[in-house]
Amino acid sequence: MFVSFYMEMYEAKKTTAHDAVASIADRSNLILGMGAAMPPALMEAVASRAKQGWFTNLNVYYMHASAAATESLLVPELMPVIKPHPLFMSSHDRQLAKQGYDVGEEWVHFVPCLFHQAGRLLTESISPDCFVVTVSPMDKSGHFSLGTNPDYGATVVRKAKRIIVEVNENMPRSFGECLLHISDVDMIVENSPPLMETIIGGGSVEDEKIGHFIAERIPDGATLQMGIGAVPNSVMSQLVSHKDLGLHSELFSPPMVDLIKRGVLNGRRKTLLPYKHVFTLALGDRDMFDFMDDNPSIVGYPVSYVNNPSVIRKNENMISVNAAIEVDFTGQVNSESIGGHQFSGTGGQLDFVRGAYASPGGKSFIALHSTAKKGTISRIVPHLTGGAVTDPRMDVQFVVTEYGVADMKGRSLQQRAKALIDIAHPDFREDLSREAHSMGMM
Ligand code: COA
């Protein structure tokens, strides 16, 4: 009986993408769902209105632009009126920023942010005028699921002035705090293209070595957070003989599915939400989305919960693994900028570096190849060159390259410099040591 009641509501709110976005005002803030939850039809409709001259200045907030975003809304011709404000730069954003620089303009307005604060920032620091997001089909109780992307979306759907959803049959239905009731939705559009997929290629020899150094320091029963990329994937491929691991991770990714299927990731010894695989953002392939769909053991929560260091620390033996661009002699880490340009973002890195070290028995690992640009530059450097500090030196614990592991905790500046030079590429160690001497650090 209430099924037909909700279906009536559904039909009443259902409209075309074109009509749905007509309610988005000029000079307002539009928030997009993140990554796979970016709604292609709605973005295309906003782009079409922008081309028709309906906007003079529309601020667009998001993280991880998908190809659908960069093929519709985030295109050079719309930059006079569409103002992209990413909280994390994807390769698409970098390309757009560069196209802007090439014509002497700032097109991309990056907003620095700790990921666990993203929901608050998007609902308190700016006015959340409209939120557009891809959701799974409605269930019989009138709930849509945010599926792959609770992240900031789970906060914004509670506070944005206007909520427009794009219902996609390919969006998995996930559990946790991931639901949105039809009574809280203003307009519904249906569109079911394949979801954005993120495929990470096989790792290098260096990734394997780094993965080995980290995997051998992970005890049975630990709870894992793994970032995106070849190193975390390599670590996970080397955990197949571990026992009773748990997951409390910003990211849910395909190698985690493999460990769940093998019974290695079972959550049995977790001290927070045992037996549940906790995530806030999923990036992967269709097989992974199918595995997530209607799977009650995989639970998505807002990033304000998952990435909050005071929540992370409730998991004993919490292990955090993230990648970096460069580390200076004192242990400061830059994971987001290259040559003064914003390359990516802080994301949840510092959240987990802090949360893991605050966990009883916890450890945080920062992983990087010893060199970049085909071996021509060292990533262990006297001073950071990128322009941003992602992890302050007081927070950093283990730094790992293919040459070993350097522990920063409890070490003096001199000891840090020596430990880091010991894991730098051998071709650079002499020059780095000379530099450290001249800085009075050795
Ligand atoms: N100087 C100059 N260029 C550098 C460099 C340095 N010190 N370090 C890396 N680069 C270049 C590489 O050569 C590479 O260029 P290419 O694509 O032309 O080969 C590019 O930068 C990317 O480097 P790579 O190490 O392959 O990056 P990645 O894709 O593995 O990503 C981070 C690494 C650090 C950028 C990424 O993990 C990140 O953004 N982290 C911050 C957010 C985070 O950790 N979130 C955690 C939870 S998901």
From TrEMBL:
Residues in domain Acetyl-CoA hydrolase/transferase C-terminal?
Answer: 284-436
The GO annotation for biological process reads: acetate metabolic process
Note the superkingdom of the native organism: Bacteria
Tagged with keyword Transferase: yes
Domain Acetyl-CoA hydrolase/transferase N-terminal as annotated: residue spans: 10-191
Please report which protein family the annotation says this sequence is part of: Belongs to the acetyl-CoA hydrolase/transferase family.
Protein known as: 4-hydroxybutyrate CoA-transferase
Which species is this record about? Terasakiella brassicae
